[in-house]
Amino acid sequence: MSAAPRWLTPEQKAAWDSFIRMQEKLIGRLSRRVQADSGMSASDYIVLVSLTERGGGRMRFLDLAKLVEWEKSRMSHQVGRMAKRGLVAREECPEDGRGAFVVATPAGYKAIEDAAPMHVEHVRRLFIDALTQEELDTLARISNRVLAHMAEQPD
């Protein structure tokens, strides 16, 4: 017999619900802005930012999928759509016949360079400007604590 559910207290539920509402509204608004400002989807933006900021413009396919927390099939479809538009290219991995790299093309670099200033302004307007530096520091500590806790938990 399994243990009884550990239901949230009213205070815990209120905190969770507020967090989810904020996150969904923020991501929704930022996604709509990046689409309107640049013509890129939020997924395009995430892939290009990940490649250019963290990957030096080139990452192994599975490392990129893991970084953005996407399933392999979702990443494959996204990379395929972006490759058709010339934003990224797929390159075979010489050391591993089954592996592949995703590479930002010059057009991909231009797209992210054009979109990033507008995106950061929306992030600032909708999120950063609503909080004090002390609140931002606290949020960063809380977020890092939750991320570290999640890393210790089974998927």
From TrEMBL:
Gene3D superfamilies: Winged helix-like DNA-binding domain superfamily/Winged helix DNA-binding domain. It comes from the Bacteria. SUPFAM superfamilies: Winged helix' DNA-binding domain. Residues 1-148 form the HTH marR-type domain. This is MarR family transcriptional regulator. It comes from Streptomyces synnematoformans.
